[in-house]
Design goal:
CATH architecture of the largest domain: 3-Layer(aba) Sandwich
Radius of gyration: 29 Å
Strand content: 15-25%
Number of strands: 22
Distance between the termini: 98 Å
Largest sheet: 9 strands, mixed
Helix content: 25-40%
Length: 552
């Protein structure tokens, strides 16, 4: 870019070549029309101001003068409203530039900020993240002298000296990579962590604990993940996108004749989504939104590619290859505990096991035909996760599964304590475990019979023995509604889950056919499956009342 044009012709060419000019509608045709309407002198003066007041400053001091597209403004708003944000973007959509710009604003506004920036390797950090951060430095800091506090030393070849820099206000950035050990974060209280591209899930988990302190003390503690999901539906993508409600969509010029993703109108792609997990957001950066990217070049490079590739490379969208069991489950199915109706008929179901904790759910059927899962055991808040995402798609066992050595009577006492006197209309149990005989001193006896023994007689019914596919289908039917229309009395799901049931929510988001019976998210889903296939409904005094009468 020629930042020192010598002639009016050079000034004109520079203004036209600046990529954002195209997005602003500044073309030769536009300028010719302006000359015809207002005269050459007026247009020349306007171009001079345009170059020296807007174009040139954006290159020399982007911290203060860079062009801020609308999708950057939306991403900044999502970061203000949430603790975690996933930017899933197409190639050259502005993910890295936005991240560097937003982090520099934070560094300058909050004295003594601490930010960790992660890349795939040390080399990719020097190639991508570090030049982006240097580019966004205020112009007066790019060649500032070292002091007791300030330390900014950058070269194109080696990046920042020692992989860090410190601003005059004490704010510091550390450049790290995924090849390092996660314990490198120990002791760091971070105002923000930026993960760029393909972050392994265990890094996300580790970083979360390094952000908690400053969320409370400084209102920061933000996690920003920017990536083009070239490796598909990873655990990190799943953590944000599974069950997310698409709240905004944008026209997709490269997919006008292709079928859209679920929840989108024809010719559109997802733009902003509300995540099931609290204080998390997701935004899709479309390549054609970037004012510094040529849409013609992107269209040319993707010419002849299939729909899946175009969705990924131009719109940052990927699908779950292993087949999500509950594709419509999302934010609209999750209700706050206080919003679960008090009136209704309660049911309970348990999936016993010897090598892990039992899994139990409580469901309330209301007079209007809705169903609410209002309690789980073990619950996430007390016992931790039932299962957690891992490097394998089927996940790995969480702390809530760890057996605590309870006997049958102890489980019954636990359930009665949780219920605290509430009436349970009927209890169900895994048909195989409940009906199988256990060895006792008196001989063979079923688990159902053992549960019915004193003390605390507890009668269970074997749940229907339908196959898994049938049960999953019935759960999906209970969750079904038109996701493209607002939730109303005539368009709403039948099944809801209390936010208190965090493990069930996690499992509904993550369970799939991956790993078959070894899928670590499957057990609470089995319990829900037993409940839904038991054809439950509200029971009142009229349910079994005699009707009719007479003779014939």
């Amino acid at each position: 870019m020629n930042l020192e044009p010598k002639t009016p012709e050079e000034l004109l060419e520079t203004c036209l070549l600046w990529p954002p000019s195209r997005h602003l509608g500044i073309t030769r045709e536009f300028l010719a029309d302006q000359v015809a309407e207002n005269g050459q002198e007026h247009v020349s003066a306007w171009l001079y101001d345009y170059f020296y007041k807007r174009l040139r400053p954006s290159y020399l001091d982007p911290y203060r003068h860079t062009v801020i597209p609308d999708h950057w403004k939306d991403a900044a708003r999502l970061l203000a409203d949430n603790d975690r944000l996933l930017i899933s973007g197409g190639n050259r959509s502005g993910k890295t530039a936005f991240s560097a710009w937003w982090l520099m604003q934070l560094l300058m506004e909050k004295e003594n900020s601490r930010i960790a920036c992660f890349s795939m390797t040390a080399a990719s950090s020097i190639r991508d993240q570090q030049p982006a951060m240097f580019h966004m430095l205020p112009i007066e800091f790019k060649h500032i002298k070292k002091t007791k506090t300030t330390n900014i030393n950058y070269s194109q070849k080696n990046g920042f000296t020692d992989g860090t820099f410190i601003l005059p206000n004490g704010s510091q950035v550390f450049f790290l990579n995924y090849a390092q050990q996660p314990d490198i974060l120990e002791g760091l209280e971070a105002d923000a962590v930026w993960f760029d591209e393909l972050v392994p899930y265990h890094w996300v988990e580790t970083a979360e604990y390094r952000l908690i302190t400053r969320r409370g003390s400084r209102g920061t503690g933000k996690m920003l993940i920017s990536a083009t999901p070239v490796t598909g539906w990873t655990p990190v993508v799943n953590d944000f996108v599974a069950g997310a409600k698409i709240t905004q969509q944008k026209e997709a010029s490269l997919l006008q004749t292709s079928p859209p993703p679920s929840g989108c109108r024809p010719g559109h792609m997802p733009y902003i989504g509300e995540c099931v997990k609290e204080s998390s957001g997701v935004i899709w950066f479309h390549s054609e939104m970037n004012p510094f990217q040529s849409p013609e070049e992107m269209k040319r490079s993707l010419s002849g590619e299939n729909t899946v590739t175009i969705r990924l490379r131009a719109y940052g969208w990927c699908e779950k290859a292993t087949g999500n069991w509950f594709p419509k489950f999302g934010k609209d199915h999750v209700v706050e505990p206080e919003d679960v109706p008090a009136e209704g008929t309660n049911f309970m179901c348990v999936d016993p096991a010897g090598s892990r904790n039992w899994s139990a759910l409580w469901l309330r059927c209301t007079p209007d035909g809705r169903m609410y899962v209002y309690r789980e055991w073990p619950d996430k808040e007390t016992y931790g996760e039932w299962a957690i995402p891992g490097d394998k798609v089927e996940g790995q066992m969480g702390p809530a599964q760890k057996p605590e050595g309870r006997g049958i009577n102890e489980y019954k006492e636990l359930f009665l304590e949780l219920e605290n006197g509430e009436k349970i209309e009927e209890r169900f149990i895994d048909p195989r475990a409940g009906g199988s005989q256990q060895a006792t001193k008196e001989g063979g006896i079923t688990l159902i019979e053992m549960l019915a023994d004193e003390p605390n007689e507890m009668w269970f019914t074997q749940a229907p023995g339908l196959n898994v596919d049938q049960g999953v289908q019935q759960i999906n039917e209970a969750m079904a509604y038109n996701t493209e229309e607002p939730v109303t009395m005539i368009n709403e799901p039948k099944l809801y889950v209390s936010r208190d049931c965090g493990n069930l929510i996690d499992c509904l988001q993550n369970v799939s056919s991956a790993g078959a019976d070894k899928n670590k998210f499957k057990d609470p889903i089995d319990v829900l499956r037993y409940l839904i296939t038991s054809d439950l409904s509200h029971v009142d005094e009229k349910t079994f009342a005699a009707t009719g009468g007479g003779t014939y």
